[in-house]
Amino acid sequence: MIGVDAIWLSVQPMDMHMGTDTALARVVAVFGAARPHHAVAFRSR
Residue 42 pLDDT more than 90? Predict the structure, then answer.
C-alpha cells in the first residue's frame, strides 16, 4: 500500500492531453519540487 502524507489540489485547470511530463513540470514550477508521498490532483477544463 502506498502511503500519502498530503494531497494538493490544483486550482487552475490543466489540459490532461499534455501528459505526465507536463504535469510534473507544473508541480515543480509551483512547489519547487515533487515531494515523496505527496499526491497532486489536477482538474480538466
Answer: no
Spell out the residues 6+ positions from residue 42 whose beta carbon is closer than 8 angstroms to its own. Answer: 10, 13, 14, 16, 23, 26
Tally of domains in the chain: 1
Residues spanned by the domain of 34:
6-41
In a domain, 32, yes or no: yes
Phi, psi of 7 (to 5 degrees): -125, 125
Cell numbers for 44:
480538466
pTM: 0.64
- Quick one: what percent of the chain has pLDDT higher than 70? 100
Examine residue 29 and state whether it is found in any structural domain, yes or no.
yes
